[in-house]
Amino acid sequence: VQDLVVTQKKILIRLDRLDGRSLELTLARRLPAYVGRVFRRCRVIEPVELVDGLDGRLTDAERDELLRTDVLATARHGDQSVHLAVEVSCTADCDNIDRAARRAALLARVGIPAVGIVACEMISEATLAYAHKNAVRILLDGRIMPDGGEGSAPAA
């Protein structure tokens, strides 16, 4: 019975990873449709496309941080060009919010207006409040949630 419990836990961990990877692939393919009402002309790009053009403006650690962005895109927000730094997680938590905010802030520091977004299937009220407090937009089940105040303004 103990071996069965251990095996079941391993299976659940693998299933969670597969769910996350599946969601990330779907997001990369469907992001323009999901955010199109708020962020026009959205185009998903490879992080390396952007980061390679920032040589000398980022430390190695900052470069690595941006390269780990789950989905990166360019878009228009009103009359401004912005980049979307998207973190993907089945269940959003404060770590996801922190990563999205940190990556958007890194882009802003080098003069690239950016919005941090967390794309998820579930989020608690506390995490949602934390996202609003940290100016991170939430994409829940393929729908961009109404802004809680500052989250729609690109960091610059």
Protein traits:
156 residues, alpha/beta, disordered C terminus
Q: Please give the order of strands in the largest beta sheet.
A: 1-2-3-4-5-6
Low-confidence stretches: 149-156
Q: What multimeric state do the chains show?
A: single chain
* Count of DSSP strands: 6
Radius of gyration: 16 Å
Principal-axis shape equals globular
Structural class: alpha/beta
Terminal CA distance reads 56 Å
**Annotation field: number of helices:** 5
Helix coverage percent: 40-55%
Q: Overall pLDDT, averaged?
A: 89
**Approximately how much beta-strand content do the residues carry?**
25-35%
Element-level helix/strand string: HEHHEEHEHEE
Please give the largest β-sheet. Answer: 6 strands, mixed
Describe the overall structure.
The structure is a single chain. By secondary structure, the protein is an alpha/beta fold. The protein is 46% helix and 26% strand. It is built from five helices and six strands; from the N terminus they run αβααββαβαββ. The chain has a six-stranded mixed sheet with strand order 1-2-3-4-5-6, sandwiched between helices. The relative contact order is 0.14. The model is unreliable at 149-156 (pLDDT under 50).
Brief sketch in words of this structure:
This protein is α/β, with parallel strands linked by helices and 156 residues long.
